[in-house]
Amino acid sequence: MIPLLDRWLALADRLSILAVRVAGAMMLAAAFLVGIDVLLRKTVLITLGGADELSGYAFAVGTTWALAFTLLRRANVRVDALYGWLSVRVTSILDLLALLSLFIFVGYLTWRAVLVLQDSLLFSTRATTPLGTPLWIPQSLWIVGFLLFLFTIIPLTLRAAIALATGDLPKVRHLAGAMTLEESAAEEASHTAELRAPHSGSER
User: Fold this and answer.
1) 3-class secondary structure, 166
2) What pTM, to 2 d.p., does this model score?
3) Rounded to whole angstroms, how far apart are CA atoms 45 and 164?
4) Could you count the other beta carbons within 10 Å of the beta carbon of residue 13?
5) Span 40-80, pLDDT tens digits
6) What distance in Å separates the CA atoms of residue 8 and residue 10, rounded to the nearest whole number?
7) By the 8 A CB rule, do 173 and 163 touch?
């Protein structure tokens, strides 16, 4: 069971990295498009048309496509004012409950999003904009992000539950715990070292 879940998580991690890169590219493209549109309006008094609509789709889709990566990197915002004062076992239980709650919440969001998509397909709904975008296109991409998140949180929750049941509390912390200040500082130091490494090599 554990090897299967670990392979599942490894696959989810690879998919989440790909998805977050695509999401970042969409955000950059949207920012570039809006920037060009603003520049044209200020200089030659013309507009590309649809830049705001496309950037809205990019933001909505990109946000859901980044959810799985955020979860696996424990980068989601956590209210941890009391977290550090609790015992490791209590925090492990709370971490698992947080994962379960998040799974239920996103599962409900996904179900509602699928219902919206079904209506859009049934009635051939289009955006009431100059582009008249068929709404099933951005909605389908939006739902893909939710599905990837569910694909990720299922094995993560099961693996954390097994770790808690077997008393492997450090594993629960590693999988689902809130990132501590020390861990955040170490991660930032690691990123800084990676960024400086090529520059240092070129100086030699």
Assistant:
1) coil
2) 0.85
3) 62
4) 15
5) 888 887 777 788 889 999 999 999 999 999 999 988 777 66
6) 5
7) no
